[in-house]
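Researcher: Sequence recovery benchmark, item below. Answer with residues only.
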């Protein structure tokens, strides 16, 4: 192992120790406090399910990153149980306090086993050690992440810098020399991406496919396959498609193209269930349809009395609507127009249901706001297929409207809208909130010196780092150019200061490789907090002032706004 590898592992170990001695025990306390406040609320009120969900979700991600998979699995289960966005939560009823308390007892038991002994902090714990180990046939393995990239037969691409880049973006890395250990590594991993040289794959296709296909089916498609090839031809690309490839990259390999592909294919593994609203007065039909859709992974809500439509629309926020054409007192076509009058649902797909099969009826319905028309009785496979394809397209179009195309982060206007929402929520709950404005230092020099393509690479690196280091509930947006905005709900200014200083240091350690060498970048950051800044406009202005102070104070620093 080279000196650079040793230094890199030392950094990882230092980060792990810092987490285990500081943030980890605080996260355990936060979960205990939130659960206690929910189960035994004080006279002036206790914490909400949302509060328990937030702290459990954060613990699940952090503990998993640092190798405590048993704890992470349990924390994730607690997070899912208290996720108020899932329709199943409302059905737990009075038992939810008992379930949460039981989970907390088990969580505390595991935490006690893995917590560092203050008298023996130099000793390495088996469950949390970050190391590179050798598996059966020479695979170098990083146990620190539940999202893993396995390199198979890539030979000349055994690049330490590529491994470091993947690690910095939150992925564990394993290198496999033979197909024998592939199944073993896959079986004990979470989200897995296998990167295979197309020629090496073709040489052992039967054995490789047997392992990969079996594991892929067993793990509900949590495994993705990325092919590398020196061949640029259509035949090579067709071979990759026929082998079940999810992405295809050509050699020589741009490491950042690989990161982009890995990010894209792993996103599919965490797709949220589709949300469908069924509006139909036939209770038996609705029950039948909902049962089938839930079995296929949909979250369902229904309206039997059309009078309640607007109320349910607002509370449920469906991604697609199944609407009966003929209901007592209300014509489905008229109701579709009413739905379209609601600004929030102008683009939501509406699929009409009817026993009628006349062409003119279908054309008329489609002209009044419908996106599709299904005739009863409906073949369930066809229904599921239509709803999935329509909802996926809706999500894609919606993401194009609210996301920045370069980074995948939300855009400037959406970030401001969500900041407005989070400020109002913090005001209602009396909870802290911070907003951070980040700006890459001397970014014009990067573009002028290395070109806009390299500049785009630097921007994407910031976006990836923010996504990997922050919580899924945090709002991360690209405000324009080299500037980013982040909303941290439930986070005080002093805590945000520590968070962004850690991210700043991690970013400054990234080496951007170019022909003949490499360079590093830094960013400056300004942080403002609620309620010191009581409105979203004031928070934006104060964060901008703090950023200005950081820039003029020498750059590569984080400043907290103080009046």
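Model:
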């Amino acid at each position: 192992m080279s000196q650079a590898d040793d230094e890199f592992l030392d950094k990882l170990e230092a980060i792990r120790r810092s987490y285990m001695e500081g943030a980890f025990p605080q996260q355990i306390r936060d979960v205990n406090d939130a659960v206690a406040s929910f189960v035994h609320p004080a006279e002036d009120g206790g914490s909400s399910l949302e509060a328990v969900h937030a702290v459990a979700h954060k613990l699940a991600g952090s503990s998993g990153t640092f190798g405590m998979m048993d704890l992470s699995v349990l924390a994730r289960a607690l997070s899912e149980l208290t996720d108020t966005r899932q329709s199943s939560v409302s059905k737990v009823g009075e038992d939810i306090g008992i379930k949460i308390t039981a989970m907390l007892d088990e969580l505390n038991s595991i935490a006690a086993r893995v917590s560092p002994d203050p008298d023996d902090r130099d000793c390495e714990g088996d469950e949390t050690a970050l190391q590179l180990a050798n598996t059966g046939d020479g695979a170098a393995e990083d146990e620190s992440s539940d999202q893993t990239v396995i390199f198979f037969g890539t030979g000349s691409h055994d690049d330490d810098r590529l491994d470091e880049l993947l690690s910095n973006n939150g992925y564990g890395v394993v290198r496999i020399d033979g197909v024998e250990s592939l199944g073993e590594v896959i079986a004990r991993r979470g989200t897995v991406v296998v990167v295979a040289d197309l020629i090496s794959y073709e040489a052992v296709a039967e054995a490789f496919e047997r392992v990969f296909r079996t594991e892929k089916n067993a793990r509900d498609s949590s495994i993705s396959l990325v092919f590398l090839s020196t061949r640029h031809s259509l035949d090579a690309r067709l071979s990759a498609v026929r082998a079940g490839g999810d992405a295809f990259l050509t050699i020589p390999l741009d490491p950042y193209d690989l990161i982009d592909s890995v990010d894209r294919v792993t996103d599919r593994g965490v797709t949220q269930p589709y949300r469908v609203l069924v509006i139909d007065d036939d209770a038996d039909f609705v029950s039948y349809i909902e049962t089938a859709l839930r079995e296929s992974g949909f979250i369902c809500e229904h309206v039997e009395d059309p009078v309640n439509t607007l109320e349910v629309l607002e509370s449920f926020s469906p991604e697609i609507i199944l609407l009966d054409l003929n209901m007592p007192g209300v014509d489905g076509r008229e109701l579709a127009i009413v739905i379209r009058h609601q600004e929030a649902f102008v683009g939501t797909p509406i699929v009409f249901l009817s026993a009628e099969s006349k062409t003119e009826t279908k054309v008329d319905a489609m002209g009044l706001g419908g996106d599709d028309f299904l005739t009863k009785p409906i073949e369930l496979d066809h229904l599921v297929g239509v709803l999935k394809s329509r909802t996926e397209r809706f999500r894609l179009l919606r993401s194009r409207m609210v996301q920045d195309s370069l980074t995948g982060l939300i855009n400037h206007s959406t970030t401001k809208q969500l900041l407005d929402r989070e400020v109002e929520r913090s005001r209602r709950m009396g909870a802290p909130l911070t907003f951070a404005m980040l700006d890459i230092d001397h970014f014009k020099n990067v573009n002028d010196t290395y070109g806009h393509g390299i500049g785009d690479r630097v921007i994407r690196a910031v976006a990836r780092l923010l996504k990997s280091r922050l919580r899924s509930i945090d709002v991360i947006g690209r405000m324009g150019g080299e500037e980013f905005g982040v909303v941290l709900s439930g986070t005080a200014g002093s805590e945000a200061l520590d968070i962004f200083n850690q991210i700043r240091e991690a970013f400054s350690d990234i080496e951007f490789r170019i022909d003949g060498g490499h360079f590093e970048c830094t960013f400056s950051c300004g942080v403002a907090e609620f309620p010191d800044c009581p409105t979203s406009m004031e928070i934006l202005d104060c964060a901008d002032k703090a950023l200005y102070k950081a820039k003029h104070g020498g750059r590569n620093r984080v400043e907290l706004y103080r009046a």
